[in-house]
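Hi! If you just cloned this repository, the fastest way to understand the data is to look at a raw example. We've pasted two of them here, unedited. The first protein comes first, obviously.
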Amino acid sequence: MQTNKRQLTMMEMMTRKRDGVGAAPRAAPGPPQPDALDEKLAAANRVFFGHGSFRPGQQRAIRGALHGRDVVVVLPTGGGKSLCYQLPALLTPGVTIVVSPLLSLIEDQVSALLGAACGGIPAAHLTSGTKEAASRSVLHELHKAGEGRGELGLKLLYVTPERLAASPTFGECLAKLHRRRLLARFVVDEAHCVSEWGHDFRPDYRKLGNLRRSYPGVPFMALTATATPACEADLRRSLKISPDALAHRTSSDRPNLHFAVEDYSEGGANDVREAVVDFVRRRPGQCGIVYCMTQADAEACADLLSERCDDVKAAHYHAGLSPANRRVTQAAWQAGRVHVVCATIAYGMGIDKADVRYVVHASLAKSLEGYYQEAGRAGRDGAPSRCVLYYRRQDVAKIRKLVTGFGRMKRRGPRLQRDLDKLDDMVKYCETPRSCCRRQRLVGHFGADPGPGNGDRPCCDLCDRRAGAAAPPRAAPAAPPRRGPPPAPGRARGPPPVRAPKPADVVDLLGGFSSDEDVAYPARKRRAR
């Protein structure tokens, strides 16, 4: 029984396969020079992932990880954060533990790795959605490798923070791997969830700093797309990131996105729905997302689009539907069988689709961080895309009441004030003076210098008006055929009365859904087809 066999990296495995098992052993290589390491990284990026080059910031973060440093990466949505830890995992002995908040995000990442063009990258996940047989197999492999009774072929293991906190068996496996120096690093994806300054704070994420005490010496990598300087400083403290950590923050600017706000404060909820229908109808066949405030709004919007737009297939997605139907809509949307998903904020971090041409917010987001993350789902392929928000001042009071809480659940303290301040920032964005630029306000919010104008590239509705460009007209949609009797004499037509929010709606709005509730279901009209 061999107990001291060194773990092979993926690059070494491929080299041995190419040269043959019986080839003479090579001398141990010395420390690579910077140019040699760059060549090795470029080759690995091409072989494993099929990429001809790195995106800005990726190579620097990867080099820092390979040198065993803690790394903090802030890249915009679509900036390629995953490669920053996936490539080092393949070039480092041992297994990389990736903590991620959503099941859909985890499952998509693992599926992509297993189906990589190089023949597949050894990856797995341990979540509440993992089948029992698969869980046993993964834990068995970790247990054997930790005791020196077998090789560890697994390179990337994705887990939820709940699994880390609630599984003693998994903790024992990690302890054994740590003693044998087979824990390559811990990766905290969507790291803004760690911080109380973040827009999606989760208490289980706050506990991840305890991993430092349990597994000393294992480097950390924290990645996010939406962290203000205050949020970044807080997550560094919480995760106990080393003072000499490599930090890489690129501009949050997404120059291919065009931002616009349409003020419907003088209209009603029905007017916003008609505007959304008109916007989507003028873009047949394009892929998009419509964010709604509540679950009921998402269902009604999907049904209305399916009814009124002949060439558009729409579906709804929110956290309150049966887990048995989860991922049905997302799979159809990813495959192009559904054009538009009408969703609550439950459809946020789990999306990885490059050709989203527009993101529409049919109601106000509760923070600029949340809005920019959701709007950033558009145009990940670099092509021009649109981000439109339909603003009603009436929504501000509604969200403020929901953020504050009701009765015995009424919130108090600094956390509440921070959330209210975030809402005020969102309102200021919607009410940006005409002499300013929405893109500059968004980018500047994250602490980066937005620079001058956007040149000839798409920018925002305010810049379009100042430049004399013809902003896309907000044509009044044709009125739908009337159903039922006319209104009673003397009674003005108008939007329906505001419905009191259900508990599930409050959960969606505040982002308090669990990672096990990431579910999908198609619109009712399309279900029968």
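Ok, and the second one:
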Amino acid sequence: MNETEGQLLDTLEAVTEQMAVAVTRCSRDFRYQWANQAYANWIQRPQNEIVGHPILEVLGRTAFEELLPYFNRVLAGETVRYEKETNFRGIGPRWTSAAYSPTLDANGATNGWVAVVVDITGHRRAEQALRESEERFRSLYENSTLGLYRTTPDGKILLANPSLVKMLGYSSFSELAQRNLEEGGFEPGYERAAFQYRLATEGEITGLEASWTRKDGTTIFVRESAKAIRDAEGKTAYYEGTVEDITERRRAEEALRQSEEKFSKAFRESPLVVALTRMRDHRYLDVSESFEQWIGWRREEVIGRTPLDIGIWVDLAERSEFVKRLEAEGVVRNLEFRYRRKDGVEMVGLGSGELIRIGNEQCVISVITDITERKRAEEALSGMTRKLVEAQEQERARISRELHDDINQRIALLAIELDQLREKHKDLPSKVRGHVQKLQQMTSDISSRVYALSHKLYFSIPDSLGLAKGMRSWCREFGKQQEIAIDFKSHDLPRLPQEISLCLFRVLQEALHNAAKHSGVERIKVQLAENSGEIQLIVSDTGKGFDINAARRSGGLGLMSMHERVRLVGGTILIDSRRLVGTTIRVRVPFRAEHTG
């Protein structure tokens, strides 16, 4: 090693010593020339037991033989990158992501390499956990009592869980998959064209009740919810949905409209949770056996009492809404509410009721369909979405800070050291000085790219600025970059919860990026204000505008992301856009001000 190489090695060693990433340099004879503290910590050995020692001795024979092909490739002058699991001496099996860059002597020959090693064992284990989670989801899919399906717009059945296969009277999915939904199989009253039109325009359908034909020709009644899933081009790739067999409920409801003699028998034996109450005082006249089994109150315990007496309604406001609609319309269908069983367990159900007359008395026949498990699944999905958004923000912030506060600073220090090396040793051979100059240029380019990536990943609002000042600062910077005038107006705002501030800021970013890219205007207006316990954000332009329905059908991630973020903080977002008139985005988020001090 000549004096110049030694100085350069000392410089690189000084720069990388405090880095969080494990870095080492090795020679052609497979020995460590140096290793930073992060590498020593990772391999769980002191630096003096690494530097100068053979790689075989430090990593163990198993690891050395597995990595030898990569060593040979880098010594041949190739930049090598890989991810693999290796059994290292002392620390056992670990997944690593490594990058090897060849080093050159004064004659340009490869004399070793610099290795950057990142332990990704945790990431790989997270992937394994995800696979296990998917297996649990598959178990839920296979064992759900609801029918679950996936079909194409042209009627092909791609997926159907066992409950749906059984519901339709087939022996296996492969047998069911031979049925094409466009060619027949549904009752004449089931308008598939109308079903497809609603999915195309609305994106999803909830609670569609219809009649279907089973394999044996018998009819079942179902309650169906479906959603159109679109591909990257915005075209409908397939439909996904759930099917609940409500045949028994339909039959029970039909029985209730028949004669009083038949009504009594059908009522008591109905498999549904059914109750009969008197309208004028809401006292129970009768309940079904299913009511007794599911709600927990025996028939003799509730006859003559009211729902308020037994405390079945968790929220009295929901009961008031049920009664109000029943009085106004004579019928209520599938009103979601919370109810309480005798043992105190709170559940979620869909309540249906209808006014009927028995003799001279106006009564109410009520049916409860339990949807507790479905609601829990929906809440779990919403919680997962929130966690994914939060995890994304945290990871963006972490990577951005790592790049800006650590990596880029060290690259800057490396650039200074290289410049000093060049100035102090002007007598270096021209070829060496050329290499140093090339390293300087490479260092400058890397620094610029790291800074740009850091800024792109995460632009945070300092607590000292607050939301309004942070938005104003970002709008000013974005406007300069895009050569667009952004008219930002705001009033004094109370201190907001972090999740609301972040939501509004991300919506602003997305809205301005879209406007700059598509509207064709030179000025955009942004308003941020607080009014009656709500934060209101308005972003408007007078540009080209766009077709909102077409954008929704295309499944663009921008609009979806804005809607999802606002929903997670309990807010609403309205987008009004017309061709050649412009676009206005209005966001309203309720809040409680945070207090400091």
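That's it. A detail worth noticing about the second one: The CA atoms of residues 538 and 586 lie 5 Å apart.
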